[in-house]
Design brief:
The protein has about 550 residues and is an alpha/beta fold. The strands form 6 sheets. Strands 12-13-11-16-17-10-18 form a 7-stranded parallel beta sheet, sandwiched between helices.
Length: about 550
Amino acid sequence: MSDGPLIVQSDKTLLLDIDHILSDECRRAIAAFAELEKSPEHIHTYRLTPLGLWNARAAGHDAEQVVDVLLKYSRYAVPHSLLVDIAETMSRYGRLRLEAHPVHGLILVSNDAAVLKEVTRGKKVAPMLGLQLDPETIVVHPGQRGFLKQALLKLGWPAEDFAGYVDGEHHEIALKQDGWKIRKYQELAAEGFWHGGSGVVVLPCGAGKTIVGAAAMAHAKATTLILVTNTVAARQWRDELLRRTDLNEDDIGEYSGAKKEIRPVTIATYQVMTTRKNGLYAHLDLFDAIDWGLIIYDEVHLLPAPIFRFTADIQSRRRLGLTATLVREDGMEGEVFSLIGPKRFDVPWKEIEAQGYIAPADCVEVRITLTDEERLNYATAEQEDRYRFCSTSQSKKTVAIALAKQHANDQVLVIGQYIDQLDQLSEALGVPVIKGDTPIKERERLYALFRSGEIKCLVVSKVANFSIDLPEATDLPSVQDPVQATVIITEDNQYVVLPGGSMDQPLEFDDIKEMAAAAVESQGEMKLKIAGHRKASYEAIFNVLALSQANGWDPVLAYDK
């Protein structure tokens, strides 16, 4: 027991004191197996669930690691019953296995005959099973592979699938690393998925999930079906694959409301796949149209329920789910686990942020005080109208406009829920608005202008929440400040001192100490501007900060605008 940031309770809730000095470290440690439920000002609530623990087990964590984390960070004694429950729950994963058999095809195997006996008594499980070969082996009908995994999960005995996969129709695909290089975590994510067979890769927004998909395709070298949320996302996937792989335009087809192309790599939208005609899903035959070697589910947490039923029939094909969160609004996380696969790889967003791959997030809540007139109107409004009234108040609009104008030189995205409010903001700021009725071509044009910097501000509805590829953190800002000396930290963690140095000949840290001192002195002010490339390590930045402190300089950070 120590003065840690975590309070572990017997009802499987974890309370994290975010003001504690170790809160960030603890948050990263528990994120692998606990689900965030509430995050108010001071105490965040996490919960331990069987599914979360099984996902952690599938990703390579064992019960001992989970227990060690809880004991390390807990402020009070951890309930012994909870520790026992964690160990018992995690031990359930993999106790049952689905394997291929040379004679009987698909079999269910367990080294624990009692567990096998228990699940065979399940009313939904029994009809899917055939002949019992021995106390530890039962034949399974091949067509029941997915449905059996669903049923076993609901009984609390998730089965590990070792039955193998079909290769699919061969199609040569390779990454084309021309002017870019795949990041280490992206490579590890693709490899983790491939070795696991099927499953989900969890990466934060902006971490390059599309590149992970492309790397998985390079592993498979087979015909690929990619399912995405909307047509804009489909075309962004297409553009990204053309940039990152050796695929050409004829290799990639779009299967959406606008086009019906089936190619070696086919990108289809969830909407068109779940469209009904005369009560039938007219387009789901696409699953069987080609001998797919890989099926990719983009934003898998938004996967429509009808897709699950058909995913159960294609368990012999490799399936990759991509998402920033495994939490679903409909509570069907279990279906994702059993039918798409368990979590194969995840990395905390703080870790990727620290490496400089994604822009640091700085979240600020601005509370608006209603005017006297607005308060009176709020008091007289109907109960069901009050939330919208506050959300669309004039006071809030005024502040939003002021904030957008304050950042007029930056890339600004204004995201809202109510269309009339968005129209008003768009008109007041004199910038375009993207909403549900904006044509696809117009959306693509506006997103392209925003990425290139020709448009500095966009007003968007929630259509921008799904699979929209927006700019990464900007590259090195302009550092030619006439008042300050500057140390630039390059992508390769080398250094350039301005004035006096050259970007063509970056130096090691030991070589810049005298140059930095001379540069500061020449400017007549005791200031040193530190500009780090977004891929520069924190260690490289801290070296210069320490140098500034030792010499009494006033450091000014310009790390990724």
